[in-house]
Amino acid sequence: MPPDSGVMANTGEILAVRGLNVSYGASKVLFDVGLSVTPRQIVACVGRNGAGKSTLLKSIAGFLKPDSGAISSGPTRLVGLKSYEIARMGIKYIPQDKKVFSDLTVRENLELGSYASKDYNWDRITDYFPRLKQLMDRKGGYLSGGERQMLMIGRALLGSPKVLLVDEPAEGLAPSIVAHLKDVFGELSKNTALVLVEQNLPLVCAIASKVYALKEGRIVAELADRESIKPDVCERYL
Amino acid sequence: MMNAIRWWWGLLLAFSLLAASWAFLPLPFVNEVVIFSIYTMGCSFLLGRVGFISFGQPAYLAAGAYGTAFYLFYFGTDPYVGILIGILSGLAVSGIVGPLFVRLRSDYFALVNLALAVIFYYLMQKVLADITKGDNGLWFLTRMSSTPVLDISTPSHFFVFAFLVALAVWAFYKYLDDSIFGACCLATKINEDKLEFLGYSNYSVRLLAFIIANTTTALAGAMYAVYLGFVSPEITSPHRAPDPVVVTILGGTGTLYGPLVGAFAYTGMKDVISKLIGNWELFIGFLLVFIMLAGEKGIWGTLQPRLEKLFSGRKVGTVAGDGAEARR
Question: Touching check for A102 and chain B: CB below 8 Å?
């Protein structure tokens, strides 16, 4: 089988990564990374800064071109597709920097998402994040970090994506908002698979059904049972 | 609803001022202001909404002007048909170069457009001199036939026509600004990657914006051609390339009234100052430096919040309604 073949070993996978190698110029960042996500599963990637977690998500989302390896969603190969094509397939990336379109209002930000996904029903978003209802006319630049995260997740939910790739959702947020996000992710996983990149191990261990530990660009552990998905166990691999 | 009323009031006020200026100012001056404001609207949209700075707008102006001129010099006499052909010429040129140019960003985009203006200049002046008549230009003022209702071969009727066209162009850009497409343009300027996260193609958004803006510029070129009854390579002269950028910045980048205010101020200063000192561009240069150092908002960008405060009786820029007011 050629190395970049998109043929999946397990047809139940909604997202599969095989033998992924990614470099920034001459500097190699990911080494033979593999990952498997099934529908409605929460998968977490943990690791220290620089381990390659965000690079992995950006590669899946089509923002980085891998040196080699395969990324597939069902029968569709994602390598070589444009990032907007991947987004239109229902694989949405929520970046780490929590930057929304600062000159657009919350409403306009959501309208952009609605128009792209042809989904104009915002009820689910406002059910998850009632706070957004009060912020509709506020510009993105005036939102707090937590509000921005709500907006970004809400916007990504439009069109009922099949996979959400969420990069460090809890970074810099107050504990109460992190607790809220934890509940939201739990609810979301009833319809959507989530791939979280996160350093907040208690959050990850509370919601993930599979955890990949990344270290220096390599998967060093795959924890797939509730007994082993614990902060102290994860910590051992970092 | 209130917003709609407010901006229609602003629109009426702006164009009432223009109509009043017709009564007090020389007709050639107001005609030039109106055409220049249309010329600048495309540039302002590109710069303010999409983040593209172009020093090649004379190329698209010339595409419109020469499209009209070729028709009126060689084939027909109806100025309306001439303007339509000018618009189609601009559409064709921007449709051909757009797919190549919008792949570039910032400085390269500015320079490749400038290069296109240089190419157009030498094409019209030398290479195609047999049909463009080189520096002598194409004269067709007396070939234009009279048209019913609005006879745009006469300056006074032309002003009414130009006024209505400017109004339509302004309303079109207002509509664009409030549309999803307008939001996409702003989003691609702010963060192109994030627009793609949502499933939009940056390339498609930029290409459409480029074609819309430069077809507007071609419309201005076609109107110049009909108004002057003459087109020469000077219209695409590279040394006039910064003009629409200067007027955009002077009026207020990305604001809807900016092109009108900028065109009025620029043409006015040119007329007044050139009577006092020979090198009027020197004054414009100093003024631009001042505007940049004063916060890059331009004339309308500075006046707008003050006028809103004056008319609404409240402090502007607070949280509620910011989005709705952001791009007026």
Answer: yes
